[in-house]
């Protein structure tokens, strides 16, 4: 089920929950920033495009959108992008040079007159807000770019700071601290397995750069919206992730056992 809720006045989250067998539940979020030049952050999953569009239309006429911030090109972020670009000829996509390159290999190549290329550290100034691109400290796609919105103070962190949870509440502050930390560490080891090989000091330095943003709230693609006061706790979870247990998924033998169990049914 796709739901819509308010993060703060002028910002809404469109959210679905993906069940990951044996691991928990994962929020899949997109965000709408209302204003003189409305911005949509990502476009939901490919499989859930119809539900996503219904939810989007409940909060804004898609033809009124000015910008689409594409955090990266994974299938849970580009689900309705083609439809939106077709239906709204004035919509432009904020992405990177690599983002355009990756989409050029897909069924939805981006026309160069419909993109605005932005690198981490650079800012795009709209009529009523400035969006500064931020490279999250962990990511699963090389083009991943979040941003800080100076109008609301919110940090949009893409996949970074997501968490696998037993169930997904509407707000991150409703989570038990231990559950949140273990869920974030587990997600980090799955989504960004390269962190186990990082230099710990260098990684911590990168994380501390995010801490200095001091946002009013944190909007991750895979965690319910969180108040900015929780950022320090969540970044400490990231710092611990490189030394956590590595994730190893089921192999073929395990799959065959699971399939056999499904066929045989309970004893």
What topology does this entry show?
Layout: E1 3-8, E2 11-20, E3 24-33, E4 39-41, H1 49-57, E5 67-69, H2 81-87, E6 92-95, H3 97-103, E7 115-117, E8 123-125, E9 130-134, E10 146-149, E11 154-158, H4 177-191, H5 200-211, E12 217-220, E13 226-227, H6 231-240, H7 252-264
Parallel strand pairs: 4-5, 5-6, 6-7, 11-12
Antiparallel strand pairs: 1-2, 2-3, 3-4, 8-9, 9-10, 10-11, 12-13
Helix pairs in contact: 4-6, 5-6
Measured by DSSP, the beta-strand proportion falls in 15-25%
The counted number of beta strands is 13
Using the coordinates shown, work out and report the CATH topology: Metallo-beta-lactamase, Chain A
The description of the largest β-sheet is: 7 strands, mixed
Structure report:
It is a single chain. The protein is 27% helix and 23% strand. It has 267 residues and is of the alpha/beta class. It has a single domain, classed as Metallo-beta-lactamase, Chain A, CATH 3.60.15. A seven-stranded mixed beta sheet has the order 1-2-3-4-5-6-7. Strands 8-9-10-11-12-13 form a six-stranded mixed beta sheet, with no helix packed on it. Strand 6, helix 3 and strand 7 form a beta-alpha-beta unit. The protein starts with a strand and ends with a helix.
List keywords for this structure.
single chain; 267 residues; alpha/beta; Metallo-beta-lactamase, Chain A; six-stranded mixed β-sheet; 7 helices
In short:
With 267 residues, this protein is an alpha/beta fold. The protein has helices at residues 49-57, 81-87, 97-103, 177-191, 200-211, 231-240, 252-264, and strands at 3-8, 11-20, 24-33, 39-41, 67-69, 92-95, 115-117, 123-125, 130-134, 146-149, 154-158, 217-220, 226-227. Strands 1-2-3-4-5-6-7 form a seven-stranded mixed beta sheet. A six-stranded mixed beta sheet has the order 8-9-10-11-12-13, with no helix packed on it.
């Amino acid at each position: 089920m796709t739901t819509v809720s308010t993060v703060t006045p002028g910002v809404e989250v469109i959210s679905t929950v993906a069940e990951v067998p044996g691991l928990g539940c994962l929020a899949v979020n997109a965000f709408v920033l209302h204003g003189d030049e409305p911005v949509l952050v990502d476009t939901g999953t490919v499989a859930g495009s119809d539900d996503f569009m219904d939810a989007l239309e409940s909060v804004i006429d898609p033809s009124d959108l000015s910008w689409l911030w594409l955090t990266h090109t994974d299938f849970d972020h580009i689900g309705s992008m083609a439809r939106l670009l077709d239906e709204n000829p004035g919509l432009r996509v904020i992405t990177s040079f690599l983002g355009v390159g990756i989409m050029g290999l897909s069924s939805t190549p981006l026309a160069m007159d419909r993109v605005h290329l932005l690198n981490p550290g650079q800012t795009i100034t709209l009529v009523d807000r400035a969006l500064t691109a931020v490279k999250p400290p962990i990511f699963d796609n090389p083009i991943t770019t979040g941003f800080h919105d100076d109008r609301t103070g919110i940090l949009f962190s893409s996949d970074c700071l997501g968490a696998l949870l037993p169930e997904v509440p509407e707000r991150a502050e409703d989570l038990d601290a231990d559950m949140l930390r273990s869920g974030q560490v587990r997600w980090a080891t799955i989504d960004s397995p390269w962190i186990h090989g990082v230099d710990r000091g260098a990684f911590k330095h990168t994380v501390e750069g995010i801490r200095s943003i001091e946002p009013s709230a944190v909007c991750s693609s895979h965690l319910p919206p969180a108040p900015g006061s929780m950022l320090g706790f969540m970044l400490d979870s990231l710092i611990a992730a490189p030394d956590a247990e590595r994730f190893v998924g089921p192999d073929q033998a395990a799959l065959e056992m699971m399939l056999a169990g499904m066929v045989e049914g309970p004893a």
